[in-house]
Amino acid sequence: MITQNLHTHSTFDDGQNTMEEMVRAAISAGLHSLGFSVHTPAPDGCAWEWAIAKERLPAYAQEARRLREAYRGRISVYHGAEWEMLSSIPPDGFDYVIGSIHHIVRGGEAYSVDASAYVTADCLARAFGGDADAAVEAYFAQYADLAQIEKVDIVGHFDLPTKFDEQRRFYDPDSPRFHAAALSAMDALNAAGKIFEINTGAIARGYRTAPYPSRALLLALKARGGRVAISADAHCAADVAFGFAEAEALARACGFTETWGFDGSGFVPAPLGADR
User: Fold this and answer.
1) pTM above threshold 0.90
2) What domains, with CATH codes, occur in the chain?
3) In whole angstroms, what is the distance from residue 276 CA to residue 261 CA?
C-alpha cells in the first residue's frame, strides 16, 4: 500500500482546498506522510494564475511548519515545491523538489502543454507548423536540462504533452522521433539519479485513463534501472491518494519491485506493497 503522496497542491497555488484540509484528507485516506509541492512563482513580468505569488512563499512555508507540528504523530508533513525552469526563483529552501516542464519554449514564447486541447493545437500550428514531432523534441530537450539541476529530486509528469491525446490526437507516442526524444531525456535524467513519478492526476481530473509516464516509457525506464515514486498530483482533498492501487499495479506490471519516498532527510526505497 502506498502511504505517501509528495505531489499535492492547495489554495496557495491552484488547489481547491487549504493545506490543513488536505492533511486531514490524507489522514482519512490512510497516508502516513504528505508533501506539499507548490507551483513556484512565474517569471518576472508574467502571470501564471496557477502558481504561488512570490510574496506568499514565506506564508506557505510557515503553514507547512505549523501543520507539521500540529499533526505530529498522526502524519508527517513536508514542505516541497513543483519547480519549473522558467520560474523566477531557484529550487532552494524546500524539503524536496519536483522538477516539471509545463511549457514548450519556441521563438521566445512559452506555450502551455497543460492548459487545453485548443492551446495545444494552437502551439503546434503557430510554433511548429503542425510538426508534432518537432514540438515534442523541443519539449523533451527542456526536460533533459533538468538533469543539470542538482536540487531537483523527482521528475514530474514526464510525458505531459499527451494529456489531451485520449480526447483529441496531437502526438504519436509510437513515432520514432517521439520515442527517441523521450528516451534521450530519460537517459540524461536517469544518469543524474532523478526519480520518475508515476502520476495519477490527469486520471482524477478526467483527462486520461492511464498515468504518466506511459507504460512504454515505464518499461524503458525499468530496463535502464530507473527509480519511481507514485504520486497523486492532488488538487483537491478527494484526490489526495487517487488511483494509487492502479498505479502500483502498473509499476508491478512494468517490473518495478520498489518505490522511492521521502523520509524527512532524503529518499529511501520501500518494497511495493509495504507501508512507508
Assistant:
1) yes
2) 4-271 (3.20.20.140)
3) 8
